[in-house]
Every structure is written in structure tokens, then in C-alpha cells.
Amino acid sequence: GYSHAPDALSYGVDMKHIRWCGILQRIALVYVVVALIETLTTKRRPNVLEPRHLSIFTAYQWQWIGGFIAFVIYIITTYSLYVPNWSFSEHSDHGVKKYIVKCGMRGHLGPACNAVGYVDRELWGINHLYSDPVWSRLEACTLSSPNSGPLREDAPSWCRAPFEPEGLLSTISAILSGTIGIHYGHVLIHFKGHSARLKHWVSMGFGLLIIAIILHFTNAIPINKQLYSFSYVCFTAGAAGIVFSALYVLCFK
Question: What's the distance, Cα to Cα, between the start and end of the chain in Å?
Fold first, then answer.
């Protein structure tokens, strides 16, 4: 157990409101999936790669198939799952107040009616989600935006609602991040020359960044960390490739 002070003079874990998800849980789940694919497909990979640019992708095709399946599951669920109206209760010294969030739509990427939040509410229960999401810092919720602060009197009901930024559906999307990350490691193993490694990392990094920027600024798939959108995966994985390349140069210069 742990102490709840100074918010409450109590000790122990409240199983009715404990948060099941978190960033370490996400890392663990992604690592398990990627590591299992890597381990179980060892005998299916060639020992020597052909000197072709795409050979490293074909040699590890099962990893990419796993990442693609995660991507398909996320995209189909995010844009096709119907999100109905939902409600939650807020406890205070004045009692319990119930709020209703009106949705009844599909493919919405905003704070109130996205499929990511709906899956977590149905799976974990709303009392087990993160109680202080970043949504509450938006201009629609507080005059202190982009910082946290008192909620506006006319703030939408979803501003007070919990939301899990490390939930199940967004973690499935993060599997693709893990797939790209382990690919950077494959390059380190199979490409022996410094220039060959850097060319691959830098070209892939900039390629992912370009995809993310196009998706974001065309409003096709905005970069959204809370939903772990595909453009967010591309942007962070691309930036990681560029930064990794820069550190590699510094280490081996």
C-alpha cells in the first residue's frame, strides 16, 4: 500500500479506483509482442542478407507483418467503432454530480468521442482511468490554457472526465513504434559500414517525418500523443532515427 496524504489521511490501495494502465505497462506490452515475434521467427530469417536495399525488410518480414496488423487494428477500430453517449460521476465535498457526454458518432478524434477512450471505458471501467488528462488544459476547458487551472463555468462536460493516455488501443498502435525501433537495431547488426548504417537511419527517419507532416497538415491524421495516432508514430519514430544517427556520429567521429 501507499499513503494518500496530504489529499486524504488514509493508507492503502483503493482497488475501486486504482489505475491499471501506465507508461511502464505500455512499454512492457509492446516489448513482449515485439520480442516474441523476434524470438519465434529466428529460424525463418536468412543468415546472410543479399546486398539489396530492401533485403533487410524482407528478411524481417514477420516483424513488419506484426506491426502492420497492429496498425490495421488501430485504424479500423479508431475510424469505424461507434461511440455512444456516455456518462461519469464527479465526487466532491458537495456530493456526487453526474455528467453526460453526447457522442453518437464514428471516427471522431477529439477529446470527447474518440474510440480510444471508449475502448478503455468499456474494458477497464471509467473509475480506473487517468483522472487528470491533458484535455483539461485546452482553451475550451480553462482560461489558464495551455497550463492547468480552474475549469471555466461553461466548460464542456468532458473536461472533467478521466481519460487513459496509455490505454489498450493506443498501446496497440505503439507496437508499430516498437517494430520501427527494433528495425534500427537490425540495421546496426547487418550493416557493417558506418556510412551504410547512417544512410539507412537518416533516410528512413526523414521519410517518416515527411509522412507525419503531410498527414498532420492535411488534417488526414493529426499528430496526437493522447490517441497515439499513426502520424504521431511516424513523427516520433522518424525523430528518433535522426537523433540516434546524430548520437552515432558523435560516438564514432
Answer: 50
In the block, residue with C-alpha cell 557493417: 192
Question: What's the angle, vertex CA 117, arms to CA 132 and CA 218, rounded to 5?
Answer: 100
**143: buried, middle or exposed (CB in 10 Å: 19+, 13-18, 0-12)?**
exposed
Residue type, 166: E
Nearest to 188 by CA among 244, 136, 104: 244
DSSP state, residue 142:
B
- Band of the pLDDT at 18, cuts 50, 70, 90? confident
For 117, the enclosing helix (H) or strand (E) is: helix 115-123
Q: What residue type is assigned to position 53 of the chain? A: H
**Annotated domain spans of the chain:** 28-79+175-252, 81-168
Predicted confidence (pLDDT) per residue in 171-226, tens digit:
999 999 999 999 999 999 888 889 999 999 999 999 999 999 999 999 999 999 99
Cis peptide before 6 (omega within 30 of 0): yes
Burial environment of residue 154 by CB neighbours within 10 A (0 to 12, 13 to 18, 19 or more):
exposed
pTM of the model: 0.90
Q: What is the pLDDT of residue 54?
A: 82
Alpha helices in the chain (DSSP H): 23-40, 55-59, 61-80, 115-123, 168-190, 194-217, 230-252
Looking at the predicted structure, is the pLDDT value of residue 83 above 70?
Answer: yes
